[in-house]
Amino acid sequence: MFPPISIDSGENQSKCGAADEGKTTRRSSAYVERMQQQKLIMGLSSGTFSLLPSITRALEKLYRVIDFEMQSIGAQKITMPCLAPQHLWNTSGRWEKMGSELFTFQDRNKAFHCLAPTHEEAVTSIVASESPISYRRLPIRLYQIGRKFRDEARPKHGLLRCREFEMKDLYTFDPDPEAAEGSFQDVCSAYSRIFSKLVLPFVEVDASTGLMGGKKSREFHLISSIGEDTLFVCDKCGCGVNQELLSEQNENRRNCTETGCTGSMKQHSGIEVAHAFILGTTYTVPFKAMYVDNQRRKHHLQMGCFGIGITRLLSASVEVLSTGGHIRWPRILAPHQLCIIPQKEGFRSDVTKELADLLYDRLNALPNLRGEVVIDDRLHLSIGQRLQLDTASGFPYVVALGKQSLSEVPVYEFHDVYNSTKQFYSVDQLVDILQSVETVVV
Known about the structure:
Blueprint (H helix, E strand, L loop, with lengths): L27 H10 L3 E5 L2 E4 L1 H20 L3 E2 L5 E3 H7 L1 H4 L5 E4 L5 E4 L4 H9 L4 E2 L5 E10 L14 E11 L2 H21 L4 E5 L9 E8 L5 E6 L5 E3 H6 L16 E16 L3 H4 L2 E3 L5 E3 L1 E8 H12 L16 E4 L7 H16 L8 E3 L7 H11 L3 E4 L11 E5 L4 E5 L1 H8 L8
Parallel strand pairs: 3-8, 7-15, 18-19, 18-20
Antiparallel strand pairs: 1-2, 4-6, 5-6, 8-9, 9-17, 10-11, 11-14, 12-13, 12-14, 14-17, 15-16, 20-21, 21-22
Helix pairs in contact: 2-6
């Protein structure tokens, strides 16, 4: 329903190439244009986008990856309303602090609400409604995946800075600071596993707590020339810090401060894709969220909050992985893993179409490829034209049915797109290769 409009060649392709360390000549407008040309997103208004079928399928796969890691650390999934009443935000004091970025409105009963950009108030009120909680029920780890809203003054870079976006937000409640630190490390380790599974070049940096408040903050970034954060990362041990935090501390860090490390801090631009906070009692005190210890004494819970900008992560991944004019996904998130290209209408195209259908059935029967194989049936285009289109749109693998597929023992042209290799294989050889491809079931 939504095929790509066109694939440019030549000078336009260089505008959206992969980001290297330091400055590049890439222009941000080409990135947004490429996403729209490939029918991944469609702008509706400034800072709002419709997510079309291909990127929606990739998004569903990312949900599965995140769900797995969240549940592996004992987090339970919930859903909270996008509408938040003013009285909750007055309780935390953030109704006024958030300023013009907070979408607010008044309902027919003259009550004020906001479209939540985050849910610390809502989740703490849930826990407070059960207070005091027995220490035996701790830790509590609750997360959701849903829409968030922010009235950005200058939306830009497509899904990287917009007014409506998808986020995974996790909230932890522990009995004491030591346990809260343990939850913090558990979640940060889970985040690292997520980014490693996606094979993304990420860095972790110490960061400012900002309007969120609390005691400790860590950010996860993808290095990119269009990133709006300035980072300093050690060239030996990899530890890093956000320039914003250095400015708050009135510090100019040239050398690594990790014990025993003699590395230098190198400057990079980064796209923030995840954030972790230790909040302490910033929210649990005003909301009276408490627990009872084994001596029946009441204490305020220690809280943490952790977010992954899901639509931002997906688009940032495409930004840093893509090369030239070709979209590249984290391989396991590609909307479909393999595309089959039969012959163009004309010479024995009925035979190659039948062969394509048989190959589709054989590959789609593999457990890991069920639902991951498509046939490019634009038979008015040549194999070469469709190969260019399909390679540029981000399929990790393409199988073309050229003249050798018409031989007595059919042989197929197999393209490992992300590794830029081409080989010729029989059906059985293709099955042997593709049955080990890692995929995410949706």
